[in-house]
TrEMBL record:
One of its GO terms (molecular function) is DNA binding. PROSITE patterns: HTH_CROC1. This is HTH cro/C1-type domain-containing protein. Pfam families: DUF5753, HTH_3, HTH_31. It comes from Nonomuraea aridisoli. Residues 33-68 form the HTH cro/C1-type domain.
Length: 419
């Protein structure tokens, strides 16, 4: 497998960029790096670029991050678990000193001989992917509407944007109308100009600009960009961990319960004007998760959620039935923090953690706030949420105890309803 420096060198050569040009483009896009740093990455003297720099380089050179770091298995999706673990081990070696790498190579050679495997052939740099094909009409329109909304939110006129970028850099009206697809590096600059700094939100918009995905339901202009980014992350996640101390997790809500929860909290928490509009987002989110069906949902709720009455008895009973059914599904792990004598209760509101299949992509946390969600990428902050969830997981009900507790609450509600 070719290393990062070799792939970067190939991409720069084939795309016709100099190190100075790439450094200038990334700096203008809000990711300041120097020509010397690009040269060090290209020659292998620097081996640990941040994920933000990797994504910016990939955007500028019109390749995927996976191709750039040598994750061919990410592109093909046709390798087995052993290959995946081997590739992950290779990524873990990134940044080691040359002397450490020599030792590691020796260990690998000994292991291959011990298992009767042939010597590893000289790694060859794979061909660079073709430059991204032009965006289709739905992609251009979705990207244009998103950029239009971000410009309006930043309170900038078309003239101000074109002046800031430099005359002729981008035809903003044509971009926003969906008639013209801007270069990904131009979108980087626009996002910086519009004050979009959160890496997950930038990546959400850029993945569309690079043509890496089709326009999706959450690309609608009515969905706030922070929420759309969260929905996109959720759909890519392989493991979803969520703590909900107030309501049933949205992915497990019935339609009637979801309507009641939105009515109580207000549709503005989902960036919508009406309850019906907010409910449509919850249902679309559930449909997308059901359609993909590959993610594992690990949910912890407070027992007060089961006792809190925000709907009539019929709706509450139906919601309990759905929770009981969900708790028995193999891809759902539902646990309850007891109201009486809990061992641990975190000093926080609801939050979610996402884990992804790509070996190079770290976990992301999401703190569900009053007016909007905060997407958290800082490693220390994400680890703090992980520790809180781990403590919850080992001090709450087991899967069997959860089903028993849900049935007990259902029986209690049924008796109350009969009376």
């Amino acid at each position: 497998m070719a290393n990062f420096a070799e792939r970067l060198d190939l991409a720069l050569t084939k795309r016709g960029y100099t190190g100075a040009q790439v450094a200038s483009a990334l700096t203008e896009a809000g990711i300041p790096i120097t020509r010397a740093y690009v040269s060090q990455l290209r020659t292998g003297k620097q081996t640990n670029p941040t994920l933000q720099v990797l994504r910016a380089l990939a955007s500028c050179l019109q390749v995927s991050v996976g191709w750039l770091v040598g994750d061919d298995y990410v592109e093909s999706g046709a390798v087995d678990d052993l290959q995946l673990r081997a590739a992950t081990l290779g990524l873990a070696a990134s940044g080691l000193s040359e002397s450490s790498l020599v030792v590691l190579r020796g260990v690998v050679e000994l292991a291959r001989k011990a298992e009767g495997l042939p010597e590893e052939p000289e790694a060859a740099v794979p061909d660079i992917p073709e430059a991204a094909t032009p965006l289709g009409d739905p992609q251009r329109r979705a990207l244009g509407k998103r950029l239009h909304g971000l410009r309006k939110a930043a309170r900038l006129s078309v003239e101000q944007v074109e002046t800031a970028l430099g005359k002729g850099a981008a035809a903003i009206p044509a971009v926003e109308d969906g008639r013209l697809a801007p270069a990904p590096i131009t979108v980087e600059r626009l996002l910086t100009l519009y004050g979009v700094t959160a890496p997950p939100i930038r990546e959400y918009v850029l993945s569309l600009a690079r043509g890496e995905r089709e326009a999706a339901w959450h690309d609608a202009q009515s969905v706030p960009v922070w929420l759309a980014a969260a929905y996109a992350l959720e759909q890519r996640a392989t493991v979803i961990r969520t703590y909900q101390p107030q309501f049933v997790p949205p992915l497990l809500q019935t339609e009637d319960y979801a309507r009641a929860a939105i009515t109580v909290t207000g549709p503005a928490t989902l960036g919508q004007q009406t309850v019906d509009e907010a409910l449509a987002l919850v249902l679309a989110r559930q449909e997308a998760m059901t359609r993909d069906g590959s993610a594992v949902l690990w949910a912890v709720i407070d027992e007060s959620v089961l006792a809190r009455s925000i709907v009539g008895p019929h709706v509450q009973l139906r919601q309990l039935d759905v929770l009981i059914e969900s708790a028995k599904r193999p891809n759902v792990s539902l646990h309850v923090v007891p109201m009486d004598d809990p061992v641990y209760v975190p000093r926080t509101g609801p939050f979610t953690l996402w884990r992804f299949a790509e070996a190079f992509e770290p976990d992301i946390a999401c703190a569900h706030g009053v007016e909007s969600d905060e997407l958290i990428t800082d490693a220390a902050a994400v680890e703090a949420y992980h520790q809180a969830f781990t403590k919850l997981s080992v001090t709450t009900t087991t899967r069997e105890e959860t089903v028993e507790l849900l049935n007990a609450h259902r029986e209690r509600l049924s008796r109350s309803f009969v009376k």
